[in-house]
Amino acid sequence: MRGIRAALLGSALAVASAIGLNGAAFAQGQTLRVGMAAQDVGRLDPHFAVSTIDRVVVAWMFNGLVRFKPGSINPAEIEPDLAERWESSADGKTWTFHLRRGVQFHGGFGELTAEDVVFSLRKAGTAATSAFAADYRAIESIEAVDSHTVRIVLRENIPSMLGILTNYSGGYIVSKRAVEQRGDTFVRNPVGTGPFALDRVTPNQSAELVAHAQYFRGAPQIGRISYRFIPSDASRDLAFQNRELDLNYGRADQTWVNRTRAVPNTVVDVFEPGELAIINLNTQQPPFNDIRIRQAMAHAVNRAELVRFRGQDVSREGQSLVPRGYLGFSADNGLLPADPARARALLAEAGHPNGITIRAIHTQLPEMLNMMQVVQQQLRRAGITLDLQVVEHATFHQQIRQDLSPMVYYSAARFPVADIYLTQFFHGRSRVRTPTAVTNFSHCDQADSQIDAARVSTDPEEQKRLWAEAQRILVQNVCGVPLIETLLVFARRDNLDYGYELKGSMSLGPLITEASRLR
Amino acid sequence: MALFPLPRFAGEGWGGGSAMTGFVIRRLLAAVPTLIAVLTLVFIIVRIVPGDPALVILGDQATPEAIAALRTRLGLDRSLWAQYFSFITSALMGDFGVSMVTGRSITAEVAAVLPHTLDLTIASMIFGVVVGVPVGIWAALNRNGVVDVAARVLSLLGLSFPVFVSGIFLLLAFSLHWRWFPVIGGADLADYGDRLHKLVLPTVALGLIMAAYITRVTRSAMLASLGEDYIRTARAKGVPWRRVVWVHGLRNASIPIVTVVGLYVGILLGNSVLTEIVFNRPGLGKIIVGALNQRDYTMLQGLMVIYCFLIVVVNLITDLLYGVIDPRVKAE
């Protein structure tokens, strides 16, 4: 017996001495420690950076010809970045960009030249080398006029030429030499001109970035960024509370926001772009090929309740089939109000006096599933029974693109110009199961002429009128039912100063610039 | 005097070193068909599961044209037979290729995290054995006494607490309250102190479950063993009680314990994902889940080969231990 006790005591002592219970010091230097909700980064070639975790970090490493003013997503505030100035022809189809001189790529890849810009934009516009190729369809040619001048010619006008050249999606400029030299490994060894360069990626743990001392706006004040992959929300929050993180990816949830605001020396940032959630209704398939049932759906949804569920600070009611704040957004569209009694009457009129059951495929992602379950209860009040078939997220994406669900809950943010949202979700060319498909799950095409005319219009007022008309047509046809817009949420220690006021970020995370610092 | 004399491993344990080597080689060769069968199943299953890797990689704005281009680049447009034979032949030559998502070598990805998985598995196993076996014996020796009841209740609690609950409690107490350990558990592999430091909490969380299981198995095996005639004979011959328990009793109770440990180690290798997530550690489990979510076929296939191989090795070690513990197994 004594032997057993001795063995137990011995093991305890061995463990205690081995670990050295000395109160670990988690020193905080000029390394910014960021916690992200992900297992790992994916592709750091900016033209393939599609997930939030990739977009956030890519924005710290790359520049575009132009950029959104840090902290803003307002297209009216686009300012020079790698291009110091530009001019366009009278018809708006020929654009000439003059590059800054002396901009250096990371890792000794030399000075940025027009050749890099031409290479990057051609790469961004090619389906085999970019996930954003469709955005560059309107470009007819890109050529280097001289070592620091680039000319872009468009086939037709597009609503925001500068938009596709910003520090967003395909607009990032890469080093031609690095891409050619590194080939397929460029996705994990990217080379840009941004304030931070990739040092290394430790799989499943972190991406480490170092300051780019030769950054053209000046050497960053933060020396390193440790971008940690922490998929568990609870563990990430604990690490933040334990002061092991300076910046933490947050949850768009009022309870989380309130709890985190109560943590000492903490600031919670809630910022744009809002992701608009829409229930897209397939107008070509029963039961939604009957507009009365689509109208019943619209009357059954109560957006104010959904906002209360998600949180007043982090969400707001959807008012159209385009997110608020986008250039061309219009709330004057005849959106049907919540009215369960009217919904029941419409169902009865459509031959369903005892209600109707609708089967829908939905993702198991908790934030999307929770919201859909609330909608499910709202629909029940109006006599609509929603039979949710919950599947894994990648399966969801594949199956909704095969038209296997008559209604599709989809939440997305896009470049803040109405054309992109309207084209991808509601233009006939974007219907799923067609060769030019994007994400038109409703199969609506009633506003195609307005969307097309607005895209090529050179008159901004006419453009806005056409976009407003398109929204009115789509809302009246109930191609989709807007739910809520959910904003982005990050928490930071109050000693982290971004160096600008954060109101929005197209990279879906705070930009860390040369001016950002840890006080 | 022991009823089963302890074998001298290299000499008599397996009838000489060459016999043991032969046994190991035969077992490894026998594993090859198993490996091929598993690989075939994995190949089929990952392709049956809906979800297109090209769509996952390119995101929701990708056009069919871009998706088709990427599928060609990834070799997914080839016939299933062509993909299968290329996969099997490469795997048998030890070439697992590159991840579809990251483009990194699968061998490099696995090599980067395998030490973390082995650290956790081995440490949890040691914790489970060091805690579970003595407590199980103690409980058996005090059958229906306070110690026995306490051991049974505690082991039931240990089995009932999933890692994501016990792990969070441990982090709250030892990281947030006492600040002894960091919440972020990924260690620098070259820094052994850091590695050991960050291993403690996950080991306790995972090892507690294993200890609970081993406690219960040890208790029942010891109860059965201590009731045998040879125990009575040994005591009648005046063998000291401690020797009766540790040598005669425990030795005969060891086969089920080793079986459980062997099985559990196999489970730990792939199923420690929750521990890895809660304690923010890299590991095989996390990579498997990530690869599954992203439909990274090549990564999944490569991981399965490695996982299978590790299971074969663990089973082989378990079988060898049977022979060490019980010469009758060796004779068979």
From TrEMBL, chain A:
Key word Methyltransferase present: no
Keywords: Signal
Localization per record: Periplasm
Residue ranges annotated for the Solute-binding protein family domain, each copy included: 77-429
Highest taxon in the source lineage: Bacteria
Tagged with keyword Signal: yes
Signal peptide: 1-27
Family of the protein in this entry: Belongs to the bacterial solute-binding protein 5 family.
Protein name: ABC transporter substrate-binding protein
Organism of this sequence: Falsiroseomonas tokyonensis
Lineage: Bacteria, Pseudomonadati, Pseudomonadota, Alphaproteobacteria, Acetobacterales
